[in-house]
Amino acid sequence: MAPVDSSRSNLRRPEIGGGIDQKLSKPKPRLDGDDFCAICDNGGNVTCCDGGCQRSFHLTDENSERSKCRLILGLSKEQAETILANDDKDFICKNCKYKKHQCFACGELESSDLSSEPKVFQCEVDDCGRFYHPKCVAKLLYPESKLEALLFKVQVAARENFTCPAHECIVCKGGENKNHRNMQFAVCRRCPTTYHRKCLPSNIPFEMKKGPNGYMQRAWDEWEGPDGHIIPRDRILIYCTKHEIIKKLRTPKRNHIIFPDAKKHREPQILVDAPTEEDIPEEGMLNNAEPSQSPTPVANDQNQCSCSSPIDSFAPASLFTYPHPGTCGWLGD
């Protein structure tokens, strides 16, 4: 099968709308979720967030590593067990619950509340959970043209749909074709850096080498299924060379996700239609309003989902002033 050629402009502004309308506050529908925990980058028994970020998390205490994921999520063991026991209810992570997500370029945690004044906006591709500041994504897509970057920034800030740089190869600028091996994407889990398999540089290896001239594994194109069988992936998962691999973890530092402080935020409302006069509280009610207490979120299912080069990463180092947020992780063993 011949590779699919996608122009850069079509990738950024598809004629067919994506899974989210930036002019409304409805969250992107959850798809299959990811196979791996967004915090520890390991697989196993993970639960996908139903809030639209497309990430999965460990809620179980199968081992000490996974119990750390639960604690980072801010859940007690009892709360996690309650979520896992209620398959007919939604599990919403704190980023989606309080509508505060990190810019996938700079890592800053900002409001994504489309019913108010959002600072970060989500890529329109259905299975993409990445959010960006208009300025950051414009700089990534138009690094050589300040004018085009400015115009694109204005469009994104005006809530026009956009496709983020993670959906084009950093080398050839082409799109993805999962049915053609050389055109499969290799996607970094810490920044918007993507390659085709054929464009993947040699310093992002698929295996680890020991010894004085050794190196760590940075790419995975298969993983071990629940029954022990090796399952090939149609999308390669990588850490690009911008991110140092910690030998003990075999991943970069796991400080890439920031959750909002629940004590400082009121839970935003999802407005499907324009507010009516009945929706607007009187002044006296506003003065006496107290923060709402929302029930503990619960889950609806468990998912077993599915750079040597002159270019090390898509994003310039000047953008990385905060921890890289990532979206999910992986380790095939």
Automatic annotation (TrEMBL):
Residues 289-306 have a biased composition (Polar residues). InterPro entries: NSD_PHD (IPR055198), Znf_FYVE_PHD (IPR011011), Znf_PHD (IPR001965), Znf_RING/FYVE/PHD (IPR013083). Residues 1-27, 277-306 are annotated as: Disordered. Residues 36-97, 102-168, 169-244 form the Zinc finger PHD-type domain. The keyword Signal does not apply. Keywords: Metal-binding, Zinc, Zinc-finger. One of its GO terms (molecular function) is zinc ion binding. It comes from the Eukaryota. Transmembrane segments: none annotated. GO terms for biological process: chromatin remodeling. This is Zinc finger PHD-type domain-containing protein.
